[in-house]
Write a structure and sequence with these properties.
The complex is a heterodimer of chains A (69) and B (260). With 69 residues, chain A is mostly beta strands. Helices cover 10% and strands 42% of the residues of chain A. Chain A is built from one helix and five strands. Chain B contains nine helices and ten strands. Chain B has one domain (3-238): TIM Barrel (Alpha-Beta Barrel), CATH 3.20.20.70. The chains are: A mainly beta (69), B alpha/beta (260).
Chain lengths: 69, 260
């Protein structure tokens, strides 16, 4: 069954996946050192990604380190 | 002042260099790395942004983290909530509880939203963060941030990226004199002399990004600014003469010849 989630501000339709599967499906390697993940405004340690299932209405933010002042 | 013993201490950590470098807006990554190297800085700032898997470029973390202490910022945050979540994400990625806290109130001036800034600073200090807030050059606000428990306070010299220098040296002096935590001027520097002025006023450090990154030769400017930090620091300890309206001869007027 498909669900709707917000991924980095955009609404996307996805299968009912674990957070890790969702990231991989979106071309992101969850083991990358330079990324961070927040689910519904809560920071998720990367090692926990596999144990969390995303659900309809979730808001997922995936960020990385970039240059900045 | 013995130069070897002069260091800046923030939250119990000591650094020889009083110069903090921002990593944005360089012509390319190699110039950025060369400029940071030339600056002698030990701490460099980075930012947190949404990932775009299709347009991936270099891994900034890998490039910088081996050599320099990374200070993440909350640039672009407009609310305390955004800034707090960004700080937590930065802590998760970098394993550091240091955060350069920015909460912007206006896109045109990039001036801080003081109300949101103070709120975010309180929350982050309570969560155990070492908070370095970018703030207005307002002695009252700076004192408030210190009292909350911020590890250092970073008043602006002028708007971010404006290159206008230290617009209110009197306020910066007051802020420094009133403060028990390090004062690091953040934003507004245009060239080496601006940095020198900040240091002569007694500031503990300066954060520079655009003045180096957008200079015609960023590596040379980084070196110039490094020297300016040192020159300003020495001058501060040496103690400048007071300013006077009229001249005082440096060569004695006595015993000079007088021809009639």
């Amino acid at each position: 069954m498909n669900i709707k989630v917000k991924f980095n501000g955009k609404e996307v339709v996805t299968e009912n996946l674990s957070l890790e599967e969702f990231l991989k499906a979106n071309g992101i390697d969850p083991s990358r050192r330079d990324i961070g993940i927040a689910l519904n405004n809560e920071v998720i340690p990367k090692k926990n990604c596999n144990g969390i299932r995303i659900k309809n209405g979730d808001s997922i933010e995936v960020v990385k380190i970039v240059v900045g002042g | 002042m013995d130069k070897m013993e002069d260091y800046i201490e923030i939250a119990g950590e000591k650094f020889k260099s009083r110069l903090f470098i921002g990593t944005a807006r360089y012509p390319n990554v190699q110039v950025m790395l060369n400029a940071i190297e030339a600056s002698g800085a030990e701490i460099v700032t980075v930012a947190i942004r949404r990932i775009k898997p299709q347009t991936e470029t270099e891994n900034i973390l890998e490039l910088l983290s081996k050599k320099w202490k990374l200070l993440p910022n909350t640039a672009g945050c407009f609310t305390a909530k955004e800034a707090v979540i960004t700080a937590r994400l930065a802590r998760e990625i970098l394993g550091t509880n240091w955060i350069k806290l920015e909460v912007i109130g206006d896109e045109e001036t990039l001036y801080p939203d003081v109300e949101q800034l103070v709120q975010a600073a309180k929350e982050l200090v309570n969560e155990g963060f070492v908070v370095l807030p970018y703030c207005n050059d307002d002695p009252v606000v700076c004192k408030k941030l210190e009292k909350i428990g911020c590890a250092a306070v970073m008043p602006l010299g002028a708007p971010i990226g404006s290159g206008m220098g230290i617009l209110n040296p009197y306020n910066i002096r007051i802020i420094k004199q009133n403060s028990k935590v390090p004062i690091i001027v953040d934003a507004g520097v245009g060239t080496a002399s601006d940095v020198c002025i900040a240091m002569e006023l007694g500031c503990d450090g300066v954060l520079v990004n655009t003045a180096i990154a957008q200079a015609k030769d960023p590596v040379k400017m980084a070196k110039a600014i490094k020297l300016a930090v040192e020159a300003g620091r020495f001058a501060y300890f040496a103690g400048r003469i007071p300013k006077k309206l009229f001249a005082t001869p440096s060569t004695t007027m006595g015993d000079k010849i007088e021809i009639s």
